[in-house]
Specification:
By secondary structure, the protein is an all-alpha fold. It has one domain. The chain has helices at about 15-35, 40-70, 75-105. The termini are far apart.
């Protein structure tokens, strides 16, 4: 059996991916009620989770096609790192808007913000 590839962080990336995925799912449960309210939370969450499941199913196939096309695993991981960095930068203005919005809405105890 051939040794697993070690370029680009190798097996260390798998636990890191699990931590990020688990934190993002718990974040959905804490941030989304504040942003969307609790009344229609299922209508917001269900399509997002469906897209996440679909994307996670496409990932291995897309990675395999890229490997077949000559894009090595280290190059793919660098591209994914760049994508994550880009999305993180793009989220900063959204975060600022959400903070401003939630600080402007008076909160009453026991009543959701929206």
């Amino acid at each position: 059996m051939p040794a697993p590839p070690t370029g680009g962080g190798g097996p260390a990336r798998f636990p890191a991916g699990s931590v990020v995925r688990d934190r993002s799912l718990s974040l959905f449960g804490t941030v989304w009620p504040e942003v969307y309210g609790t009344r229609h939370l299922g209508a917001v969450r269900s399509p997002v989770v469906a897209v996440l499941v679909f994307a996670s199913a496409l990932g291995p196939g897309a990675g395999g096609l890229l490997l077949d096309a000559g894009a090595g695993q280290p190059a793919q991981l660098v591209a994914l790192d760049g994508y994550c960095l880009m999305v993180s930068v793009l989220v900063v203005p959204l975060t600022r808007r959400l903070r401003a919005r939630t600080s402007a809405v008076p909160h009453r105890e026991g009543v959701p913000s929206r």
